[in-house]
Write a structure and sequence with these properties.
Length: 96
């Protein structure tokens, strides 16, 4: 597969008016198309499509309570260095 000067000009216009040497651009695009032609000749029959190149299975653990003592919300809020109003931690305004 090759590309003509007219096709190159159409591509260049659509790709934002590329200034410069059209012969060099034509050569680059022709090289890319030739490589795509080469790839299209590769026999991929029986090849399983690759979804991920890493054979990593996510191992999740069971959520468990390590210290089963009961803690109320007041005790937890008392640990905060932030101001607490109406049982909620007050955060600085980020939209000012």
């Amino acid at each position: 597969m090759s590309i003509s000067q007219d096709e190159l000009k159409k591509i260049a216009e659509k790709l934002s008016k590329i200034p410069g040497d059209n012969d060099k651009l034509l050569g680059n695009i022709t090289d890319i198309i030739s490589y795509m032609d080469l790839l299209s000749q590769v026999d991929t029959d029986g090849v399983i499509p690759t979804v991920s190149v890493v054979d990593n299975i996510a191992s999740l653990r069971e959520d468990t309570i390590s210290n089963p003592t009961e803690v109320n919300s007041g005790e937890l809020l008392a640990c905060s260095k932030q101001k607490v109003v109406a049982n909620q931690i007050v955060l600085p305004n980020i939209m000012s």
